[in-house]
């Protein structure tokens, strides 16, 4: 199969940089257009990013000389798919304009996530939600990623929900500063500190897993029917969201049943051997003090959800800790995996 031309919208941001890094030498996608705001448009990517590139390794050669443009589908001729890491203030209208112009969108922004015929896609969790795309009226289709905090949580819940049913979930997040974008949280607010508020985050954490774990019916996605209570906190960690999760099950499993459900969990990305699919979507760490962002973040090239500390919960049934890479598994990596799945299903 030949490569298809893609654009990265919001290419200069935290998520955008990850797209640029992860799309280097991609076997299915060729980046031809990079888009950002009028502050960046007209300059080369290397020029704009010389002080803003914040991830390890150099800016990939293929992207350095591309002239940044505004995110306008009239400019991105020849592009079939756009990965969006746009700020939410602009993402809604721009992504709709691209879809109307026949360019498929895979978005990291919140704007279209809860529309009932827009998949909130996590490739291992709900590949069947792509079925609702045929009910979208625009020639380009919109697919979204979930919020980065709940991406790993939802992956960890998926095999448990399927096998044992879930009644309720409590979660407490410790979220990295890169999750707030660039330049994000001021140093004096976060260094040596914890901020127990992230605007809008708890609302997303309490609803988005329910859509991801939902079922499709008549071209719509019907949410899963349990309740989630979320506490979201910003902590002075650069990358990697850690979440403590407690679960009440419909049919309480044993410890070994939970561990077996996690270790045997695989999805279509693994079956199809998609380029960015980790061998195992979930890895359980046996050590009593893991997972930790510094030690475990790069597991499976940042695409594996690392869980640990499974133990009885005296109020609900079981509790554990989840770590996932917010700009890889929680954003650009998950979006690329979604696009790989769509490519292999001839949906692009
Ligand atoms: P960011 O670092 O602030 O980057 C935002 C991007 O949007 C930049 O490229 C910026 O371009 C562009 N932009 C802003 N206003 C624009 C406008 N009026 N017209 C065109 N482009 C505009 O944000 P981020 O952290 O990458 O997040 C991007 C999106 O992904 C957000 O919706 C966020 O909620 C979501 N998300 C983030 C994470 C994460 O871990 N960071 C994870 C999952 C989802 P300029 O540089 O030219 O201003």
UniProtKB/TrEMBL annotation:
Entry keywords, A to Z: Amino-acid biosynthesis, Diaminopimelate biosynthesis, Lysine biosynthesis, Methionine biosynthesis, NADP, Oxidoreductase, Threonine biosynthesis
Enzyme class: oxidoreductase
CDD domains named in the record: ASADH_C_arch_fung_like, ScASADH_like_N
Gene3D superfamilies given in the database record: Dihydrodipicolinate Reductase, domain 2, NAD(P)-binding Rossmann-like Domain
GO molecular function, one term: NAD binding
Record keyword rRNA processing present: no
NADP is among the record's keywords: yes
Annotated InterPro entries: ASADH-related, Asp-semialdehyde_DH_CS, Asp_semi-ald_DH_pep-lack, NAD(P)-bd_dom_sf, Semialdehyde_DH_NAD-bd, Semialdhyde_DH_dimer_dom
SMART domains found in the cross-reference section: Semialdhyde_dh
Domain Semialdehyde dehydrogenase NAD-binding, chain residue ranges per copy: 5-133
Pathway in which the depicted protein is active: Amino-acid biosynthesis; L-methionine biosynthesis via de novo pathway; L-homoserine from L-aspartate: step 2/3; Amino-acid biosynthesis; L-threonine biosynthesis; L-threonine from L-aspartate: step 2/5
Active-site residues annotated for this sequence: 148, 241
SUPFAM superfamilies noted in UniProt: Glyceraldehyde-3-phosphate dehydrogenase-like, C-terminal domain (SSF55347), NAD(P)-binding Rossmann-fold domains (SSF51735)
A Pfam cross-reference name: Semialdhyde_dhC
GO biological process annotation, one example: threonine biosynthetic process
Family: Belongs to the aspartate-semialdehyde dehydrogenase family.
Record-given protein name: aspartate-semialdehyde dehydrogenase
Species annotation: Leptospira neocaledonica
Designated gene of the protein: asd
